[in-house]
Amino acid sequence: MAKHDESRRKFLVGTAIGAGAAAGAALAPQALAPQALAKTAEHHHGAQVAANEASGHAAMAPMGGGHGAFFNDDDSRTVAAFAERLMPGAPGKPGATDAGVLNYIDLALAGAYADQQDFYRRGLTQLDAHCRAAHGKPFRSLAAAQQDEVIDALQHGKSTAFTWPTAQAFFNTVRRHTLEGMFADPIYGGNKDFAGWQLVGFPGAQMMFTEQDMLSKEAFTREPIVGLQSRLKGKKT
To answer: How many domains is the chain built from?
Structure first.
Protein backbone atom coordinates (compact mmCIF):
# COMPACT_ATOMS: atom_id res chain seq x y z
CA MET A 1 0.00 0.00 0.00
CA ALA A 2 1.30 3.48 -0.86
CA LYS A 3 2.31 5.70 2.05
CA HIS A 4 -0.36 8.22 0.97
CA ASP A 5 -3.05 5.51 1.04
CA GLU A 6 -1.96 4.31 4.49
CA SER A 7 -2.07 7.86 5.84
CA ARG A 8 -5.56 8.42 4.44
CA ARG A 9 -6.78 5.11 5.88
CA LYS A 10 -5.45 5.94 9.36
CA PHE A 11 -7.00 9.40 9.25
CA LEU A 12 -10.44 8.15 8.21
CA VAL A 13 -10.45 5.27 10.67
CA GLY A 14 -9.38 7.66 13.41
CA THR A 15 -12.16 10.10 12.60
CA ALA A 16 -14.89 7.58 11.85
CA ILE A 17 -17.61 9.21 13.96
CA GLY A 18 -21.27 9.98 13.36
CA ALA A 19 -23.90 7.84 11.68
CA GLY A 20 -22.69 4.35 10.95
CA ALA A 21 -19.20 4.90 12.34
CA ALA A 22 -18.03 2.27 14.81
CA ALA A 23 -14.54 3.62 15.42
CA GLY A 24 -12.99 6.33 17.53
CA ALA A 25 -9.61 8.03 17.49
CA ALA A 26 -8.34 5.64 20.17
CA LEU A 27 -9.07 2.54 18.09
CA ALA A 28 -6.40 1.00 15.93
CA PRO A 29 -7.17 -1.24 12.92
CA GLN A 30 -6.67 -4.48 14.83
CA ALA A 31 -9.15 -6.63 16.73
CA LEU A 32 -9.80 -5.46 20.29
CA ALA A 33 -9.19 -7.71 23.26
CA PRO A 34 -12.30 -8.30 25.42
CA GLN A 35 -10.78 -6.22 28.24
CA ALA A 36 -11.13 -3.15 26.04
CA LEU A 37 -14.70 -3.89 24.96
CA ALA A 38 -16.40 -2.65 28.12
CA LYS A 39 -14.72 0.76 27.78
CA THR A 40 -15.98 1.23 24.23
CA ALA A 41 -19.39 -0.49 24.35
CA GLU A 42 -21.35 2.67 25.17
CA HIS A 43 -19.68 4.61 22.35
CA HIS A 44 -20.35 1.83 19.84
CA HIS A 45 -23.97 1.52 20.94
CA GLY A 46 -24.48 5.23 20.29
CA ALA A 47 -22.89 4.88 16.88
CA GLN A 48 -25.25 2.03 15.99
CA VAL A 49 -28.28 4.06 17.09
CA ALA A 50 -27.05 6.93 14.92
CA ALA A 51 -26.72 4.56 11.98
CA ASN A 52 -30.31 3.42 12.43
CA GLU A 53 -31.57 7.00 12.55
CA ALA A 54 -29.57 8.06 9.51
CA SER A 55 -31.08 5.21 7.53
CA GLY A 56 -34.61 6.06 8.58
CA HIS A 57 -34.84 2.78 10.50
CA ALA A 58 -35.52 1.14 7.13
CA ALA A 59 -33.70 -2.15 6.65
CA MET A 60 -32.19 -2.31 3.18
CA ALA A 61 -31.10 -5.69 1.86
CA PRO A 62 -27.88 -5.65 -0.19
CA MET A 63 -28.31 -5.89 -3.95
CA GLY A 64 -26.52 -8.68 -5.74
CA GLY A 65 -25.23 -6.43 -8.54
CA GLY A 66 -23.81 -3.82 -6.17
CA HIS A 67 -25.66 -0.91 -7.83
CA GLY A 68 -28.74 -0.13 -9.81
CA ALA A 69 -31.22 1.19 -7.26
CA PHE A 70 -30.29 4.78 -8.15
CA PHE A 71 -26.95 5.04 -9.97
CA ASN A 72 -26.42 4.18 -13.63
CA ASP A 73 -23.31 2.23 -14.63
CA ASP A 74 -21.05 5.25 -15.22
CA ASP A 75 -22.05 6.96 -11.99
CA SER A 76 -21.60 3.67 -10.14
CA ARG A 77 -18.03 3.40 -11.38
CA THR A 78 -17.36 7.02 -10.42
CA VAL A 79 -18.74 6.70 -6.90
CA ALA A 80 -16.99 3.35 -6.36
CA ALA A 81 -13.66 4.84 -7.49
CA PHE A 82 -14.14 7.97 -5.36
CA ALA A 83 -15.00 5.94 -2.25
CA GLU A 84 -12.06 3.59 -2.80
CA ARG A 85 -9.64 6.52 -2.95
CA LEU A 86 -11.15 7.85 0.28
CA MET A 87 -10.85 4.45 1.95
CA PRO A 88 -8.29 2.47 -0.07
CA GLY A 89 -7.97 -1.24 0.47
CA ALA A 90 -4.79 -3.25 0.90
CA PRO A 91 -3.91 -6.87 1.67
CA GLY A 92 -5.48 -7.68 5.02
CA LYS A 93 -7.06 -4.21 5.25
CA PRO A 94 -10.45 -3.92 3.56
CA GLY A 95 -11.33 -0.75 1.71
CA ALA A 96 -14.53 0.80 0.39
CA THR A 97 -14.83 -1.68 -2.49
CA ASP A 98 -14.41 -4.66 -0.16
CA ALA A 99 -17.05 -3.27 2.20
CA GLY A 100 -19.64 -2.63 -0.53
CA VAL A 101 -19.78 1.13 0.09
CA LEU A 102 -21.19 1.72 -3.40
CA ASN A 103 -24.12 -0.56 -2.62
CA TYR A 104 -24.79 1.29 0.64
CA ILE A 105 -24.84 4.74 -1.01
CA ASP A 106 -26.89 3.50 -3.96
CA LEU A 107 -29.56 1.98 -1.73
CA ALA A 108 -29.58 4.99 0.61
CA LEU A 109 -30.19 7.40 -2.29
CA ALA A 110 -33.07 5.22 -3.46
CA GLY A 111 -34.53 5.28 0.06
CA ALA A 112 -33.67 7.23 3.20
CA TYR A 113 -31.46 9.74 1.37
CA ALA A 114 -33.75 10.25 -1.62
CA ASP A 115 -33.77 13.99 -0.94
CA GLN A 116 -30.07 14.05 -1.93
CA GLN A 117 -30.53 12.54 -5.38
CA ASP A 118 -30.27 15.88 -7.21
CA PHE A 119 -27.26 16.77 -5.05
CA TYR A 120 -25.47 13.65 -6.30
CA ARG A 121 -26.59 14.07 -9.93
CA ARG A 122 -25.28 17.62 -10.10
CA GLY A 123 -22.20 16.83 -8.06
CA LEU A 124 -21.18 13.93 -10.29
CA THR A 125 -21.76 16.01 -13.43
CA GLN A 126 -19.59 18.80 -12.06
CA LEU A 127 -16.95 16.30 -10.94
CA ASP A 128 -16.56 14.96 -14.47
CA ALA A 129 -16.51 18.51 -15.86
CA HIS A 130 -13.64 19.33 -13.53
CA CYS A 131 -11.78 16.12 -14.45
CA ARG A 132 -12.21 16.62 -18.20
CA ALA A 133 -10.95 20.20 -17.94
CA ALA A 134 -7.96 19.23 -15.78
CA HIS A 135 -7.07 15.78 -17.18
CA GLY A 136 -9.14 15.20 -20.31
CA LYS A 137 -10.98 12.21 -18.84
CA PRO A 138 -13.87 11.55 -16.43
CA PHE A 139 -12.97 10.72 -12.84
CA ARG A 140 -13.59 6.98 -13.23
CA SER A 141 -10.98 6.79 -16.03
CA LEU A 142 -8.16 8.59 -14.21
CA ALA A 143 -5.16 6.94 -12.60
CA ALA A 144 -5.22 6.72 -8.80
CA ALA A 145 -2.70 9.57 -8.42
CA GLN A 146 -4.84 11.84 -10.59
CA GLN A 147 -7.98 10.87 -8.68
CA ASP A 148 -6.21 11.81 -5.45
CA GLU A 149 -5.26 15.16 -6.96
CA VAL A 150 -8.89 15.79 -7.90
CA ILE A 151 -10.16 14.78 -4.47
CA ASP A 152 -7.65 17.10 -2.82
CA ALA A 153 -8.84 19.97 -5.02
CA LEU A 154 -12.46 19.31 -4.05
CA GLN A 155 -11.62 19.05 -0.36
CA HIS A 156 -10.03 22.50 -0.44
CA GLY A 157 -12.63 24.07 -2.74
CA LYS A 158 -10.20 24.52 -5.63
CA SER A 159 -12.51 23.83 -8.54
CA THR A 160 -14.27 26.34 -10.75
CA ALA A 161 -16.48 23.60 -12.23
CA PHE A 162 -18.59 23.42 -9.05
CA THR A 163 -21.43 25.82 -8.27
CA TRP A 164 -24.08 23.76 -6.48
CA PRO A 165 -23.24 21.69 -4.66
CA THR A 166 -19.92 23.32 -3.88
CA ALA A 167 -16.80 21.21 -4.29
CA GLN A 168 -16.29 20.99 -0.53
CA ALA A 169 -19.92 20.12 0.14
CA PHE A 170 -19.76 17.29 -2.40
CA PHE A 171 -16.49 15.99 -0.98
CA ASN A 172 -17.76 16.11 2.61
CA THR A 173 -21.01 14.33 1.74
CA VAL A 174 -19.37 11.50 -0.19
CA ARG A 175 -16.79 11.07 2.56
CA ARG A 176 -19.51 10.91 5.23
CA HIS A 177 -21.50 8.37 3.23
CA THR A 178 -18.35 6.34 2.61
CA LEU A 179 -17.75 6.12 6.35
CA GLU A 180 -21.37 5.11 6.91
CA GLY A 181 -21.04 2.41 4.26
CA MET A 182 -17.87 1.13 5.92
CA PHE A 183 -19.12 0.98 9.50
CA ALA A 184 -22.94 0.74 9.60
CA ASP A 185 -24.58 -2.61 10.25
CA PRO A 186 -24.49 -4.80 7.10
CA ILE A 187 -28.29 -4.77 6.99
CA TYR A 188 -28.05 -1.31 5.36
CA GLY A 189 -26.15 -2.64 2.37
CA GLY A 190 -22.53 -1.85 3.28
CA ASN A 191 -19.93 -3.22 5.70
CA LYS A 192 -19.94 -6.42 3.66
CA ASP A 193 -18.74 -9.46 5.61
CA PHE A 194 -18.18 -7.10 8.57
CA ALA A 195 -15.22 -5.57 6.71
CA GLY A 196 -15.41 -2.24 8.53
CA TRP A 197 -16.01 -3.77 11.95
CA GLN A 198 -13.10 -6.14 11.50
CA LEU A 199 -10.91 -3.23 10.48
CA VAL A 200 -11.44 -1.45 13.81
CA GLY A 201 -11.99 -4.50 15.99
CA PHE A 202 -15.64 -3.72 16.73
CA PRO A 203 -17.47 -6.88 17.91
CA GLY A 204 -20.96 -5.73 16.92
CA ALA A 205 -24.00 -6.49 19.06
CA GLN A 206 -23.57 -9.44 21.42
CA MET A 207 -26.09 -11.03 23.75
CA MET A 208 -23.49 -11.03 26.50
CA PHE A 209 -19.78 -11.15 27.26
CA THR A 210 -18.78 -13.98 29.59
CA GLU A 211 -16.37 -13.54 32.48
CA GLN A 212 -13.86 -15.51 30.45
CA ASP A 213 -14.33 -13.11 27.53
CA MET A 214 -13.74 -10.08 29.75
CA LEU A 215 -10.59 -11.53 31.33
CA SER A 216 -9.08 -12.72 28.07
CA LYS A 217 -6.22 -10.79 26.52
CA GLU A 218 -6.82 -12.39 23.13
CA ALA A 219 -8.64 -10.62 20.29
CA PHE A 220 -12.42 -11.06 20.36
CA THR A 221 -13.46 -12.95 17.23
CA ARG A 222 -17.06 -14.09 17.78
CA GLU A 223 -19.35 -12.85 15.01
CA PRO A 224 -21.78 -9.97 15.69
CA ILE A 225 -25.35 -11.00 16.51
CA VAL A 226 -26.79 -8.07 14.53
CA GLY A 227 -24.83 -9.09 11.46
CA LEU A 228 -26.01 -12.67 11.77
CA GLN A 229 -29.62 -11.44 11.83
CA SER A 230 -28.93 -9.58 8.61
CA ARG A 231 -27.63 -12.75 7.00
CA LEU A 232 -30.72 -14.69 8.01
CA LYS A 233 -33.00 -12.06 6.45
CA GLY A 234 -31.00 -12.23 3.25
CA LYS A 235 -31.43 -16.00 3.04
CA LYS A 236 -35.21 -15.80 3.48
CA THR A 237 -35.78 -13.32 0.62
So the answer is: 1
